[in-house]
């Protein structure tokens, strides 16, 4: 047998020997079941040493020995361990069973095993050897950890860059505001802050994760119990993925953290919206997909099915997509989690080869059954690697925290005890370290270590029971607010809430003034503060939140009620009752509504905005506690008009119904003293009572109908916040027919749906609608009152499908054909809303089936657009004109074609629809289907005889032009294969298909059109030709392609004269450079502005002006337009820097020509005083304006 030392003579052999020996010792001791604390400690240290040796060995294999400083350090350290490794080998040999021994020797060896390996001296010697090896390897290990840390820090930087890019490109503010995607970076940053240097390296360096990165259609489930650090591990995985994959071509990375303390991050809709926005913002051209989603659902949040379809389409555009989802278990099991798991299951069932999905959660039964992850995709966090992470975390904390460093002599004991008690729970360790940091003397440290709690429950019980008696009420209030709130509260809001004396339900701002430090003292270890960016202002804001999911879970569990901390129990209904009372108490305090409503008032009453939003939510979750809250609500609506107005100013529920949330409090404040415009949106108390379905308040207010109500009297006699607000309310009226608001009046509000379907189902029964509608009508509500988004009550009820309400309104004399509102009439509204039964009811009550009006022109077009076949059939059976013109899409066939409703298209054609009828934004059905990329519909229309070259439409002139602009290669191919005229002229904007594709930068379509014979120099449209269109939009690759294929670089035509002038106008420096390098005539005349230099001077493109001058542009060239020359153009426009550049390059300051005679005349005409001074300083001579 070869001498082991000869095998291990090299560094590689030494590391291999160390790994082999250490692993043997780990296996030996791990197999022994009844471990003493000393033995357990040795085993853990051996496992830690094994991990270090393996990490160093891996690093050595992956580096360059001659140049890598890390490898050189490893080699040096390993050689220094030679003697100790030999000793370890000898110890291991004593433990090993020698198979060659006879029976007697084996019996003797077994006896030795039962004694020698477990002797105290043996274990102590092993500890010494392990410590010496670690000390020798420490420098190499530090270098390795620094390298890994640097890599992960690079990941953080790259992720930050990725997020910044996602926030600035492609997706418009309008789309972002509509989509309202939750910001996952807040949670990611919070998780990163808790990560220790080496945490999670075992995961990202492990084989399962590495396989996940590269395997097709890969999936990984990381699971563990509460507090084991899943979110921190997910943050490591995200950063590593960004670092390793972001720079590869066409890779998308999306992530989402479910959060128990943020309502927007609890369900699958929030997850899908966040992923869709993140991925769309990383992809050129994806804005078209999300724009289509916006067009379909702009009035509200898209349904989950539509979000999933859009997400799948976006994922398919990438070469690889990585999606990482953290904490599925923080989606509430009772009402949200099933939807989340269904969405994850749907995504996995797509079986997309380019998708890599990673999720983390607790190992809960419903999640495990839904995911069905095989062992190769299942990573449990109950493993030695997590224990090592915890050990390293403790070691780092006690060495670096100023309060823990003072107990240096106890560090080994602290580390040993906390590691052994942690059982893989990071959160447990955090809590114990927090307790140790508060220790002032050694006896306190002794007490902490001697009586460590068994688990997290006991830890939290001790924390709660240690709260000072005088702070218990405040602690309960803080914990209740944070647990029940749908979002984190700012520290200022929380301090504002503490000003309420809960025992008296009174606001005492002077006597109960707390500080930020007080919050942490009141609830030590149970809450945490974090600085985040305010979504509205973008400023740094300090928020407070529950420190960990397990804290809230414990407070809301049955377990706490059995323990000494039962007084802190949070039971949902009583807690929401208390929350609603606190919020209303704050709003009803007279000082809150006294004086001017401005930013100073918000600073003085920081809890006001949250209270204004939260009371209604808590009221609706208060269950049997509602009667205790309703007197306060009635005071707000009936007895204290000042408070009512202030509440609406702070949080107007009516604005939630406006697209993009309408006017908010910040907009009101921007109005200054004159906020009559904003206050025009405040409606009567009765309107809000109906809007929020506050039956108790509504009944009380309506009973006063016909008399002067309390609020009427108050408005007439009291000096309120603003006299103009008072007058506005009086002008609108406060009775049943008062006009205003999103719904126009109380009857329409009652007839419609409360906010959206999910909100409505949660908060009230539909029978309440019928009762309120009937009551309003009994009190003389005008059944045909006009106004609001739906025009009238009947249209509102028809749109949302309130069949009984529709019948009530019709029985009370509602005009079934009344015009108005977004859908024109009730029948069109019901047709768009897919309300088949309501459609039949309206038709049976003589609704005009061909009534015109609204966005979709008529009911048939609306039903065709949404694809409701039964409603389409019903309307046709009742005499709908199949070719009726009107609406955005011209006719029913065009609407169905654009929306891709294949079955409806077939029905309409079978029933005689004119396939080539002109009208609408897209001209005809074929163009509409082509623009939207509806391949199947395009094929159907062509098969049924659609005119492939039909002209028309407001933007595109024919189907090929529309498909080319959208970059829809398959549709373009289909149209060309069916004989579309590739050079067809027409259209005010683009002129030809090639020009449309060039403008949009659709490289593949441009290539296809050229390959199929498109005339590269065809003239027409605003941009003259394809090269000019591509140049204007800065499509560098298309410009290059066109030039390589023979495009005439100096061709004249279009608004900008030529390609160089077009690129100069939009400041496309690279394209300007390319055109000049390819021979563009720099001084060629043409277009509205004469030449390229004049164009760049007009727009103020300083860099382009400089570039043109450097390349020899004639600075004094005359002609083109009415401004004579470049200096006169820049002077007229007031571009000071351009004027200076031109003068510096020798422009003739007194050159004559143009409408204003010279540059000075142009500057004087427009009042550009600074330019005038510059020109005079450079010798300009005043002359009369010609």
> Rg to the nearest angstrom?
37 Å
User: Globular, elongated, flat, extended or rod-shaped: what is the shape?
Assistant: globular
| Main sheet summary | 5 strands, parallel
CATH class descriptor name of the largest domain: Alpha Beta
CATH architecture of the largest domain: 3-Layer(aba) Sandwich
What is the number of helical segments per DSSP (H or I, 4+ residues)? 66
Number of domains as seen in the coordinates = 8
The helix content is 55-70%
Q: What is the residue-averaged pLDDT?
A: 83
- As residue ranges, the low-confidence spans are 1-9, 97-114, 142-156, 659-665, 667-680, 706-733, 755-764
Roughly how many Å apart are the termini? Answer: 109 Å
CATH-defined topology of the largest domain: Rossmann fold
Strand order in space, largest sheet: 2-3-4-1-5
Taken as a percent bin, the fraction of beta residues is: under 5%
* CATH superfamily label of the largest domain: P-loop containing nucleotide triphosphate hydrolases
Strand-pairing-aware structural class: mainly alpha
Based on the model shown, name its key terms.
single chain, 1186 residues, mainly alpha, Rossmann fold, 8 domains, 5-stranded parallel β-sheet, 3-stranded antiparallel β-sheet, 66 helices, 10 strands, 4% strand
